[in-house]
Amino acid sequence: MRNYLIALDAMGGDFGPHISLLAAKKTLQKYPTLSLIIVGTREKIIPLLKQYDLLDHDRLSFVHAENVISMEDNPIYVLRHVSNSSMHTVLKMVADGDVDACVSAGNTGALMLLAKQALKTIPSVSRPALVSGLPNNCGGHTYLLDLGANLQCDSDTLFNFAVMGSVLCEKVEQVPKPTVALLNVGKENNKGSDIIKRSATLLGESNYINYVGFIEADELFSCKADVVVTDGFSGNVALKSYEGMGRVFLQQLDKAVNSSFYTKLLGKLLSPILKKQFKHLHPDMYNGASLIGLRGIVVKSHGSANEIAFSYAIEQAIKEIQWQIPNSISNRLEAVLSERDCLSHE
Amino acid sequence: MRNYLIALDAMGGDFGPHISLLAAKKTLQKYPTLSLIIVGTREKIIPLLKQYDLLDHDRLSFVHAENVISMEDNPIYVLRHVSNSSMHTVLKMVADGDVDACVSAGNTGALMLLAKQALKTIPSVSRPALVSGLPNNCGGHTYLLDLGANLQCDSDTLFNFAVMGSVLCEKVEQVPKPTVALLNVGKENNKGSDIIKRSATLLGESNYINYVGFIEADELFSCKADVVVTDGFSGNVALKSYEGMGRVFLQQLDKAVNSSFYTKLLGKLLSPILKKQFKHLHPDMYNGASLIGLRGIVVKSHGSANEIAFSYAIEQAIKEIQWQIPNSISNRLEAVLSERDCLSHE
């Protein structure tokens, strides 16, 4: 790995800055050529850097930012009236080329708007999309987008999502010609809205997309598609439903195991094998949603991420730097759109 | 229980008519004052009635229907060009008052359109909604609607869903003043589309709705709301995501338990308690989605239902007859809409 430099917005997330500092420490140990810049308010960060023995780390530096954007702040208000926050600072570092990427666990809506303002989108992309590689049933990842950045989408936007998701999956997962499906309420051609039907036509026409048809939400992670495309409302609902059901199951399993001394004993004996089996489904393991379609790398960590989860988000940023995702997406989109121009002139 | 009469469309579902016949037999045993009419093609049904010893049952009769609507048939084609199917027949029986309700596991889109045509909607309802009471984390049910009958919905439609879902939950679950939430991508007031924001205002203004705000999909079954309202696309995605994740977890649990002789033994010992704990989450237990907003009772059984699941759908129909759901919904909607008229004239 070359020498990469990533800026961390340490002020986001539900549990305070110590999460990003612990994640930073862990990731620096794992990647000896990685350097990190921690951005946050001096009063909060300096004591923690001391506490975690990071003050004199030769690959970690600190930059002060005056303001903090809270999870409750209205993104449009932030865009218009707030400046000099930790989020503004990390995005400006990416925009100015001072760092290779940034990671934030802050307010998603604000990150979207500020990232678009600071970094600008790739030509032909109107708004960035939020995408994550979620663990599927075959031990790999299914890339789902959009996860909530674009609540309503037209067919061209869904088409662009398919292109961008394909590039990300192909590079990061090393899957040649990733299969792409559209999320719908049924598999038959007559199902879904006019927007979805038109998207299906566009995707079917392109040689750059390995389009395999509609997919229903119960098969999202059945490995029928490497990339699943939908609008941000449905994508968010699908992702959170999976997380919610996962939590319900783990709670029920816990209740069953803790219902008596006898089951506790059996559960204790089974526990290591259960942990191993469920490990790849744990939300920590797929933390790190990427904002793609921008002229720079921005990774969003889950607000409720712990240090393990936050360190996965940093690793996601490392992979995107390695594969130069913004450039790859830009080049692919250019090729795809010129193909569409040719098709429309035939 | 009074003497109820329910018509079963025996030709729907993925596994053939024997499912509905086995479910009929089971339900007749459980409810001694219930009578059923089996509707289907003579050639298929009569041999099965013989096989299951149902030919001379004094509370079961058979009605022949010439045609069958398949799961693949285009609903609009069916509406325009098909007649005399088993689905047509059961719906006509409800419309003519010959039976108290009907149950079908057939093509959902066709059932929607034919039911609307045959039964008509309640005043002020433009299209029926599909709703199901799903097992929640507190041992009760959360009513989610719409599950796919109305892909795009305006604020007035979502408001009507809230009223209809409240009535169903209040009556069937015996929950006084059920809490109602709107599914959204965040809990804050500024989240979501204009349609969702306007729906929130309408719901907040009504004294007939116990509106508690937005809910995210990971908390759908956390008991924060008795009724969750959303458009049919998102509702379908949420429901199927839950089902999909449930399946993934059960598969992983199975893999973990079957990974060695030792874990198999432990799993076998834990199995009864696990079965008990997970029983209420099993899809069989919440089969039976209701088409509400019609002037009659129509229950949709899942296409992949087995006989246990199908019998739950028949029981759902029984509860709706007991509580006269169509009348109750009609009366409540009238009251709510006259309240809204008053509010708009204040």
UniProtKB/TrEMBL annotation, chains A, B:
Cross-referenced InterPro entries: FA_synthesis, Phospholipid_synth_PlsX-like
Compartments, as annotated in UniProt: Cytoplasm
Top-level taxon of the source organism: Bacteria
Enzyme Commission numbers on file: 2.3.1.274
Metabolic or biological pathway: Lipid metabolism; phospholipid metabolism
Any GO molecular function: acyltransferase activity
Catalysed reactions, semicolon-separated: a fatty acyl-[ACP] + phosphate = an acyl phosphate + holo-[ACP]
Keywords, comma-separated and alphabetical: Acyltransferase, Cytoplasm, Lipid biosynthesis, Lipid metabolism, Phospholipid biosynthesis, Phospholipid metabolism, Transferase
Broad class of enzyme this protein falls into: transferase
HAMAP family documented for this protein: PlsX
Quaternary structure annotation from Swiss-Prot or TrEMBL: Homodimer. Probably interacts with PlsY.
Reported function: Catalyzes the reversible formation of acyl-phosphate (acyl-PO(4)) from acyl-[acyl-carrier-protein] (acyl-ACP). This enzyme utilizes acyl-ACP as fatty acyl donor, but not acyl-CoA.
NCBIfam families in UniProt: plsX (TIGR00182)
Family of this protein: Belongs to the PlsX family.
Protein's name in the database: Phosphate acyltransferase
Protein source organism: Psychromonas marina
